[in-house]
Amino acid sequence: MSAVVTEGIAKHYGETKALDGLDLEVPQGRVFGLLGPNGAGKTTAVKVLTTLIKPTAGRALIDGIDVVQDPRAVRTRIGLTGQYAAVEERLTGRENLELIGRYFHHSKSDTAARATQLLDMFDLTDAGDRVSNTYSGGMKRRLDIAMSLVARPSVLFLDEPTTGLDPRSRLAMWEFIARLGDEGTTVLLTTQYLEEADQLAEQIVVIDEGRKIAEGTSDQLKDQIGGDKVRVTIVKPANVETAKTAIAPLCVGAVDVDPESLVTLTAPIRAGGGVVPGIIRALDSAGVDVLDVEVRRPTLDDVFLVLTGHAAETESTTSTGGGA
Amino acid sequence: MAIASESGPLSGSPTSKPNVLTDSLTEAGRHLRIIPRNSEVLIFATIQPVMFVLLFSYIFGGSISIPGFDNYDQYLMPGIFAQTVVFGSVFTSIGLAEDLSKGLIDRLRSLPIAQSAVLIGRTFSDLLRNVITFVVMLVVAFLLGFRFEGSLAAALGGTALLLLFSYGLSWVQALIGLSVGSVEAANSAGFIWMFPMTFVSSAFIATNTLPDWLAAVADANPFTHVTNAARALYNGNPVGDSVVWAVGWSIALIVVFAFLSIRKFNQTSS
After folding, report:
1. What is the DSSP letter of B155?
2. What pLDDT, on a 0 to 100 scale, did the predictor assign at position B43?
3. Long-range contacts made by residues B20-25, C-beta under 8 angstroms, separation at least 24?
4. Domain residue extents for chain B
5. Which residues of chain A register pLDDT less than 50?
6. How far apart are CA A236 and CA A256, in angstroms?
7. Of A265, A269, A275, A270, whose CA–CA distance to A245 is shortest?
8. What residues contact A182, with CB distance under 8 A and at least 6 apart?
């Protein structure tokens, strides 16, 4: 059985269609990425799936249980980490974790043991007895996720878990999420960053304006939009044909030459890096003077440009639903 | 060690049904535990009432006299008590707005708890904090010479009545806290109507000194009924129908606004 299934879920706020017939199927035990810009409907989808809002149309199931028909049964199976670090800032990390255990009606000793375990897992043992408003952003986020895991949910929802984190905290968070996935927790992750989905999610669905516009693995998506590209700028236009012949064997598609300047060559290359040194050597041994070699990886903007024909909206929208 | 896999503590799925009482106590416990850690709340709950008692007593005490009361303090103190516990209800709207803005309401709503427990726990802990406020005020009032002129039972009854009314207003504040967008808005939306409600009343003056139309408003004000009932009980005077009005208003507020707030809560997400 799939961990999460949605069939044409829609959420309309008057004229605004936050979700407009979204179909998802999330297999069990994987990290699943929901990728899209602000306002694409990611948060709305998470809110429908976590019983916070009712869909205008369609059906959503968690472990086969309908979120509208039996929200309580759904709530026993899910963990939610929303866009804000939802921790009680005047309680300690440990108290926050124990609070969730008590809400699940577990015994005091079980709750305490689980809190200790989670503090350890999330590198918060030393900070566990400190009031959480003294925590850094990354620590609060980790506590936030730990709180969502207290009752061992079957599906964990992470709504933009690294938004607002500094690069180091983001990397640390990626490690935790990857570990959850390795251990077989089903994680539904929303993100605006292709790189993040790329790092963590085995399966990615791209959404825009409340609808699915593409899905596949990270490689499949990148192939769909052209993958990595190299851009070589040479010094003399006279060398352009030599340069083209030299780098062609290292590229995975046709080499385009900028017809105006005759010094810029662009070509798709294998993803994952390691190609640039070869390109430089090949140009060097062909006797071509190189000004610049630049590798461009696809960004979310590229995905959007290719898939929708319009650039990703980057400004945040404020809808009645209060989120993206 | 695995983070979330099925071993170790809490590996069994919870089988117990949601329990409004247990869940409300857990939620109330969350709020009560942070009172001593939250200096703003402590100041508001203790210093502000002391200030009110002292200010009103010394500022108005000399220039106001009420027929039938030799000592204005005996008239005034129940009014201050009433106003202060009623002001205390604003914490419900501020607290809920804060939880909402921090995403805590979303987290609580995604847990398999009795949803109404979040509001019951919140209003209940606010009631307990109001009890603390009340005790502080009472001590100051006694130091200034205020005394229970009736029986102790009557005084306790008067106190219970004030707290019951403020509990009713806590549910009004719950609806406000869930409806406005921010903590700041909750603060002003929660407070603004409290001023006319508590001043256009019998709390500080005799309503017959007001212009006729305003006196009519003041006499119909539920806060007047509550203040009159408490004042009569503290002073050992006949209560008339004020107690019935006060209890009736309080229960009506609780029933209507608990219904509206819980319904609103089930649709609220940050």
Report:
1. H
2. 80
3. B20/B114, B20/B116, B20/B117, B20/B120, B22/A105, B23/A103, B23/B113, B23/B114, B23/B117, B23/B121, B24/B114, B24/B116, B24/B117, B24/B120, B24/B121, B24/B124, B25/B121
4. 25-56+74-267
5. 314-324
6. 16
7. A265
8. none
Chain B nearest-CA distance from A62, in A, is 13
Instruction: Compute CA distances B113 → A208, B20, B98, whole Å.
Output: 34, 8, 20
What are the helix (H) ranges across chain A?
42-49, 71-75, 93-103, 108-121, 137-149, 167-182, 194-200, 218-225, 240-247, 276-285, 300-308
Chain B nearest C-alpha distance from A97 (Å):
12
**CA angle (B174 as vertex; A15, B245 as ends), nearest 5:** 125
In our burial notation (b when 16+ CB lie closer than 10 A, e otherwise), range B102-112 reads: bbbbbbbbbbb
Beta bridge partners of A37: none
**For residue B103, which residues of chain A lie inside 8 Å, CB to CB?**
82-86
Q: Is the ipTM of this complex over 0.90?
A: no
Question: CB atoms < 10 A from the CB of A224, how many?
Answer: 15
CA dihedral (A58, A64, A66, A70) in degrees, to 10, reads 180
Q: What is the DSSP letter of A205?
A: E
Q: Which residues lie below 8 Å from residue B233, measured CB to CB, with a gap of 6+?
A: B150, B154, B155, B157, B158, B161, B239, B243
pLDDT in tens, B225-253: 999 999 999 999 999 999 999 999 999 99
CA angle at B125 for the pair B119 and B128, rounded to the nearest 5° = 145
| Contact residues on chain B for A51, CB-CB shorter than 8 A | 109-110
**B195, B115 Cβ separation under 8 angstroms:** no
User: Chain B closest CA to A194's CA: distance in Å?
Assistant: 25
pLDDT (0 to 100) of residue B98: 94
**Smallest CA–CA separation between A51 and chain B, in Å?**
7
> Would you tell me the crossing angle of helices B72-88 and B116-143 to the nearest 10 degrees?
160
Q: Which of B11, B106, B116 has the highest number of chain A CBs within 10 A, making it the mutation to test binding with A?
A: B106
Cα distances (angstroms) measured from residue B233 to each of A208, B71, B149, B157, B254: 65, 16, 8, 7, 23
Interface A-B: count of C-beta contacts within 8 A: 128
> Can you tell me which residue has the tokens 């002001």?
B87
Q: Do residue A321 and residue B269 have CB atoms under 8 angstroms apart?
A: yes
Instruction: Report the pLDDT value the prediction gives residue B189, as an integer from 0 to 100.
Output: 94
Say whether pTM exceeds 0.90: no
Phi (first) and psi of residue B80, to 5 degrees: -65, -40
* A179 contacts on B by Cβ (under 8 Å): 3
Sheet containing A16-26, strands listed edge to edge, beginning at the edge strand earlier in sequence? A16-26, A4-13, A57-62, A65-66
Tell me if A143 sits within 8 A of A135, measured CB to CB: yes
* Predicted pLDDT at B222: 97
- What is the H or E stretch that residue B107 is in? helix B104-109
CB-CB under 8 Å, A114 with B9 = yes
